[in-house]
Amino acid sequence: MTTLKLNNIDKFFGVDSSRVQVLKNINFTAKKGEINLVIGPSGSGKSTFLTIAGGLQTPSDGSVVLEGQSLKTLSNKQRDALRLNKIGFILQSYNLIPYLTVKEQFKLVKKIKKNHNLDDHSLNDLMKRLEISNLENKYPGELSGGQSQRVAIARALYTKPDIILADEPTAALDSERVIEVGKIFQKLAREQNTAVIIVTHDLRLAKFADKVYEIMDGSMNLNNELKKKAG
Amino acid sequence: MFLSLKEIKKEKFRYGLIVTMIVMICYLIFILTSLAMGLSSQNTDAINSWNMKSIVLDKDSNTSLSQSLITKNQKKNINLSSKEALIGQASVVAKKSGLKKESAQFLGLNNKQFIAKDLVLTSGKKVNGPHQIVVDEQFKNDGYNLNDKLKFNSNKTEYTIVGFVKNAKLNIAPVIYGNIAAWQNIKNLNDQFVGSAIVSKDANYDANNQQLKTYSKSVFISKLPGYAAQNSTFIFMIGFLMIISLIVIAVFLYILTIQKLQNYAVLRAQGIPAKTLVNATISQSIILVISGLLIGTILTIFTALLIPNSVPMSFNIPILTSVGIGLIFTSLIGSLIPIKLILNVDPVSVIGG
Ligand SMILES: Nc1ncnc2c1ncn2[C@@H]1O[C@H](COP(=O)(O)OP(=O)(O)OP(=O)(O)O)[C@@H](O)[C@H]1O
Ligand SMILES: [Mg+2]
Q1: What is the Å distance from ligand 1's center to A20 Cα?
Q2: pTM, full prediction
Q3: What residues have their beta carbon closer than 5 A to ion ligand 2?
Q4: What positions does the domain ABC3 transporter permease C-terminal occupy (chain B) (predicted)?
């Protein structure tokens, strides 16, 4: 039931003397129906790891295999299609198009991916749970940080992705809403068999995770101690 | 379309400014072109109204109507068919006390030849006698009426306006049509001179005379005093104006696209195909430029309706249309220069980690 596999991933930035290694020989496997949490301090390489996993950037070395297919072998176009149909990305900082209302953010996706999205009823349900139903006609500029984060989560779930890649999805949320988001991810994993990968420095999510990894200076290790600590 | 329209709707002010700029540029180009065309046609309106193909002038006249004379002797051996007509040209200042003096082109005609016969009057009747004249409507606009009597230069003879013609302009001056006898009188010539030139509707007409030479209509027009210089000035002026405005528009659209890259990066991360983004960019440029062109055209039409008659304007639809198409094309180029950036937009570098 492996759905995403990273093999021996290295990532370097810069050249010559300014060359730094941000990811060091990372091996990682995500299974369907499982919530994986990657915890690490700022600058440890979390976002780099997640964007490589989602095919947004290429590793310097190693391979990313998504549902049996190596991302290296895909064209840009195929990678776009993969993200649209299989992956729900929640980015760290910038998720919404400033000139579309909340409702239109979904409409845009629907125009391009016509089928196999949440139906109106389920979308309303999701938005209610995230407490963003009343924001439908607002523009991102009119939302608070936490509100846009919750809209971004709903946007990512709208396409019913097989894999959710979330970068600090709870950074701007209070504890109550962190719990709600954790429950939503849990429900997705259990009921839809979605693979969820969350990178964060927020330990509050650890109790919802099936596996907790720690990333430090570019090296990643399974660390279930962190889960116990949080729970 | 969805993306481009939504963006325009949200950023009304920004896009309003850009459309305003495009409107102003179109308007400027349209009006300048029309003014230049108007002025240029005032050089040649009369010539065009005759439907002539060639003209016979003295070969030593430097292709200038005012320097050419045809003598009675020369004419004797010339065969004039119904397609030929003699004209006698004189530059005159026409005056009537109380009214504005008019610098005009007097053209003496023979009543029985095609120019006089084909003349289309807007009012009055044709010339029938040495003291009658038919004048361009500019005289009417300046207060002259039918049956008014005019004098030319210091000449004492009075000439009566018996009719008006429209668009009779030669070398940016209104034309006064009279007969050959009047022309001889004005030029103080005796009847040894029968005219300045022979105009023919036949492109290959040949007067068969050593001293006379046939010129095509286009050669004749290009040698009208000041005409070529004036036209090349206008062509360069409008050409430079167009190139510069097109670059300005292209630069604006380029900047506009660059500003969108961050949004495009987000869309790429969501898996929206690059094709959708490119379409959004192109359709937006087209929407902006076409609305600018439409508003510019409407403004130009209003200006044309409001502008006084004394300002010559001529709207050459093919030329204005190609200006419009040129605008659309360059704006497309302007917005497509960064297309490589759109296609290769790196979500990570734009959105950050
Ligand atoms: N494009 C790049 N060029 C050079 N260095 C980069 C680039 N992207 C990231 N880095 C460096 O790689 C390291 C890891 O960055 P990354 O964004 O993955 O950290 P992070 O764990 O997500 O941090 P945060 O919690 O602050 O988001 C940082 O030291 C960063 O400066
Ligand atoms: Mg990060």
Answers
A1: 10
A2: 0.79
A3: A 46-47, 92; B 353
A4: 235-347
- The residue type found at B256 is L
Distance from C-alpha of A173 to C-alpha of A147, rounded to nearest angstrom: 8
Cβ of A80 within 8 Å of Cβ of B272? The answer is yes
Q: How far apart are CA B308 and CA B302, in angstroms?
A: 12
- The answer on B218 and B89 residing in a single domain is yes
Counting from 1 in the atom list of ligand 1, the atom nearest the Cα of A50 is 18
**Tokens encoding A154:** 């709903």
Residues A114-138 have pLDDT tens digits of 999 999 999 999 999 999 999 999 9
Contact A77 B347 (CB under 8 A): no
- Give the HSE-up count for residue A15: Cα atoms under 13 Å, Cβ half-sphere: 0
* Atom 2 of ligand 1, nearest CA residue: A13
Structure tokens at B50: 């005759």
Of B206, B225, B244, which residue sits at a domain end? B225
User: Could you say which of B186, B203, B225 is where a domain stops?
Assistant: B225
Structural domain including B109 reads 46-225
User: Which of A46, A167, A201, A203 most suits a substitution to test ligand 1, by most atoms within 8 Å of the C-beta?
Assistant: A46
Please tell me whether residues B51 and B11 are part of one structural domain: no
Task: Using the atom order of ligand 1, give the atom closest to the CA of residue A49.
Answer: 18
Q: Write the single-letter amino acid at A44.
A: S
Let me know whether B215 and B243 are in one domain: no
Q: Do B232 and B321 fall within a single domain?
A: yes
- Average pLDDT by stretches of 10, chain B with 353 residues: 91 94 92 90 93 95 94 89 95 93 95 94 93 95 94 92 94 94 93 94 91 95 92 90 86 86 86 89 90 94 86 85 85 80 74 59
Q: Which ligand is nearest to the CA of A49?
A: 1
A223 vs A208, higher pLDDT:
A208
How many domains does chain B divide into?
Answer: 2
Query: Cβ–Cβ contacts within 10 Å for residue A74, how many?
Result: 15
Locus of tokens 């116990």:
A228
pLDDT in tens, A78-108: 988 988 999 999 988 878 999 999 999 999 9
Tell me: do B111 and B245 sit in the same domain. no
What ipTM is given for this predicted complex? 0.85
